[in-house]
Structures are given as structure tokens and as C-alpha cells.
Design goal:
This protein is mostly helical and about 120 residues long. It has a domain of about 80 residues: Arc Repressor Mutant, subunit A, CATH 1.10.10. About 50% of the residues lie in helices and about 10% in strands. A three-stranded antiparallel β-sheet has the order 1-3-2. The longest helix is centred in the N-terminal third of the chain and has 15 residues. The protein is elongated and about 60 Å long. The protein starts with 16 loop residues before the first helix and ends in a 7-residue tail after the last helix. About 10% of the residues are buried.
Length: about 120
């Protein structure tokens, strides 16, 4: 019996699949790490100091938040700014690359609210 083969959808380039998988792998390698997406979502509301950001994120430890912020800043998604106030403070905000993720994170949150039992909705 001959094996049935599926035709590729119109406009589908099977050779592009490995590049797409690599891009998605890179994106989810960073965004799929616990807390990173939530931190970006909270910062979507505007710049925050460390304590306010921690409260917005939820039950994250200071050391994990610090590590995640360092990682997100290194990836060019978050900007860390030391303020001139007394005592000096630190503010975190999304870069233009980080802000470009806002619609995607909103769509992901809406999807989770609709399709995952634990999703709280938007």
C-alpha cells in the first residue's frame, strides 16, 4: 500500500521551518523562563522601581527578580535607570524592543484566559 503524502499549504516553504523553529526556540528560551513574561507585562504599564515591580509581579523573591531583570536588560528588553533622587533609586522600564512585545503578551494572556483552566482572563 502506498504511503499518502500531504501537500504543503500554498505559500509554505518547508525549508523555512528550521529557521522558524530556531527563532521560536530563542523567543521561548527567554520568555518561557519563569517570571520573565510577567515582568514584561507589569512593566507594560510604565516604569517602576524595584519594590513596586516586585509587588506587581507577585510572589517572586528579590534575588530571582534581580536575576530576571538583569537577563531581560541583557536581552535589550528592559532598561535600568538610576535616579538622581535622595536616596538614589532605580527605575525599570521597557525598551522599544520590550514594548514591541506588549500586543503579543496581551494576546497570550487573552488566549490563556479563554483556553487554560488556570488562566484568569484579561
Amino acid at each position: 500500500m502506498a504511503k499518502a503524502t500531504e501537500a504543503a499549504p500554498p505559500g509554505h516553504d518547508p525549508a523555512a521551518v528550521p529557521a522558524c523553529e530556531a527563532s521560536l526556540g530563542s523567543a521561548f528560551g527567554l520568555l518561557g523562563k519563569r517570571w520573565n513574561g510577567v515582568i514584561l507585562g507589569v512593566l507594560g504599564g510604565g516604569a517602576l522601581g524595584f519594590a513596586d515591580l516586585r509587588r506587581g509581579v507577585g510572589s517572586i523573591t528579590d534575588s530571582v527578580l534581580s536575576d530576571r531583570l538583569t537577563e531581560l536588560a541583557g536581552a535589550g528588553l528592559v532598561r535600568r535607570t538610576v535616579t538622581d533622587a535622595r536616596p538614589p533609586g532605580v527605575r525599570y522600564e521597557l525598551t522599544s524592543s520590550g514594548a514591541a512585545l506588549e500586543p503579543i503578551l496581551g494576546q497570550l494572556a487573552a488566549w490563556a484566559g479563554k483556553h487554560l483552566e488556570s488562566g484568569g482572563g484579561c
